[in-house]
Request: fold
Amino acid sequence: MFLRVLIVVPAYNEGESLGELLREIKTCVPGGEVVVVNDGSRDNTGPVAQKNRATLLDLPINLGIGGAVQSGFQYGWRRGCEVCIQVDGDGQHNPADIPALLEPLQNGQADCVVGSRFFGKQGGYQSTFSRRLGIGLLSRLLWLLSGKRILDVTSGFRAMNRRAFGLLAVSYPDDYPETESLLSLLLAGCRVVEVPVTMRDRQGGRSSIFGFRTLVYMVKVSLALIIAKLRWQLNPAGKVESEP
Amino acid sequence: MLTPEISLKAQWLAIIISGCWLLGIIYLIIKESLGLRSALGWLFISLVAFGISLYPKLLVAVAHFTGIGLPANALFLFGFLAVLIILFGHTLVITKLLNNTRALTQKIALYELENRQSRGASGAASENSQGVQDP
Reply:
């Protein structure tokens, strides 16, 4: 059993779904500390987090998902946590799957565990056809660049040990960071595995990726992956050596 | 034809506009509204524009040297390149500022949380000590 587990919940205007999510997390991971990273929300996200006895990391301005998640990892590093689990504040991730995410970390089989909706098909929310197509393409690109096949590359439901989240606390992408951060971990020699999870439809709010933005997302993430690989080839040690 | 066809009236207009532009930049630098480091590009451009408006034959020489047929084309090409370089410099500065803002925001949030936690801990400790002292 890990002694210090931190659950990082990045949230931007998620007051509607956050309360229920935090109650579920407390039930499923009773010993863990929950930090809600309030990314400059204009709704009641902050008060909802405090009401549910979560630690509130209040960003004074909106940094976007990358900056919010990285802040959570930085907090985990400062607190000396052994494991950080990232759970989206929109309620899509089921906290009941967290023990399954922790298992490969406890067995020493992985540094990062990705909760995957496509691995071992558990049913539940599988996303739209166009998004699945995009995820499939990104998965293949990641495979090409890292040699490791991960099916759900855009999943934000992940558990990491101190080595992995320490790397991401130092350097984390801004926009659409999941796939790029996976590549950074793989290039740094971290072991990444997938475990099947069941994802739910959003409990509130609205996804930032829809319509034309899906195409922009694809182009941007593909470019970011290629640039990350080039950067790593030019400077393999890179930021790996620095401390958060 | 390489000689710039410019009437005296047009030349005076060019001198007044570029002169005012140059003086405006110098005034803003003195007033510290414009940092010298970021204004260097603009200062250089306005000086060149003022020089050309005073001596239009400079443009002819530049066009001849670079093999550009018309001096007006040379003016547009180098003007466009100068603006492009300044714009690119601004993009670099914005990226750096964004990275700095992100790091600062994260530090503020972390310090604010640690401050709140330590105040909470000291509040709880003083409450406990008061509890012990109570009869």
